[in-house]
Design a protein that fits this description.
Blueprint lengths: L35 H25 L1
Length: 61
């Protein structure tokens, strides 16, 4: 077995501990009750993305 530099005996340096950070609240939460026009635009865009994906799959068949 080849050893590269580092600590002898196969000991590894301990990794720093990660500390969970609080999740900030959403800056612009979107719900149907808040802004139905915006929600509809988002839904239309998602449908368009799905239509493009399905069209690409049809070309493969």
């Amino acid at each position: 077995m080849r050893r590269t530099g580092g600590r002898p005996g196969g000991e590894a340096a301990p990794l720093p501990r990660r500390v969970a950070k609080p999740v900030p609240p959403a800056q612009h939460p979107v719900t149907f009750l808040d802004d139905p026009a915006l929600l509809e635009r988002v839904a239309e865009r998602l449908r368009a993305i799905d239509d493009r994906r399905l069209a690409g799959l049809r070309r493969l068949n």
